[in-house]
Amino acid sequence: MIRPSFQFYPADWQANSNLRRCTHEEKGIWLDVLCLLHDQSEYGVCRWPLAEIAQAVGCTEQKLQGLINKGVLKGVDAGALEAPLVYVPRSGRRNGTPIALLAGQEGPLWYSSRMVIDEYKRIQRGDAGGVPNALQESSPNHSPKPPFGEAPKPTPKDTPEPSPKDSPNPSPFSCAQASRAAPSSSSSSSSSKEKPPNPADAGPAAKPRLSAIALQTFLDECQAKGERPLRDYAPLWTYQQGAKLPLDMVTLAWAEFRRRFLPGGTQPDKRQKDWRGTFRKYVENNYFKLWAIDREGQYFLTSTGKQAEKFQETLEAA
Q1: 4 lies in which domain range?
Q2: Which of 104, 180, 218, 268 is 20 to 30 A distant from 21 in Cα terms?
Q3: pLDDT for 207-257, tens place per residue?
């Protein structure tokens, strides 16, 4: 599924030294190229010849060459060899382990380094929270399906507790027939003395009530069972696709959710019986106020959302 939007920060656009060297015409062409890169299955990367990209955005190859010469559009055309794109995470003044996001290879290969790096960060953040990356490729008209053909695991909220009044095999007798067929109290008492009651006749035993636990305990239990906290929770992804909420915003909400309720957060002692259902409510009601919708119906990050994203990027680089 192609995402309906991508994040755009005017301050970053205006502060980019390479873009400041471009003319207004070149900046407009670059916006069209960004939209083209956004629509690719390999996010931020286009493997077309430069002539086809020029035709798609409605400009000449010479004008695209201007973006290449100024370091805005990166890559090579057919027959040339492109160097690897290496990303170095950074926390404070310390550099992390370099990561090759794109291997050295022959063209045609054109990309936006910012898009490729942001996509890597988003995937890393999603893996940490158990968000299913496969949802990006699923149809928006279908509910997400769990991997490998497994049925979604029921949550405590989705599984109703059996009532002690319910019977697995309802009696075919009416109330009047049941009263006529019932033995007298004297015979019942005598029969009860003759043999002990069969536990199976009492019907199914009620399931023990789940106790409220902390989020850390819930995550530890998921890890012990080999489960991911959110991947198989169908109600969350059904809502996400129905509301057309970008996956990276759900991922950001999960990161903020864990930051609040895990040790070191503002509410580490919070107890819940159903943490999956609690997070779904946080997403549906946008409790963190991370996103909003513009007049065209497109989602965008609020100031609170941008601040949270910057904070998570700092944690990832540490």
Answers
A1: 1-112
A2: 104
A3: 667 789 999 999 998 888 888 888 888 899 889 988 989 988 999 999 999
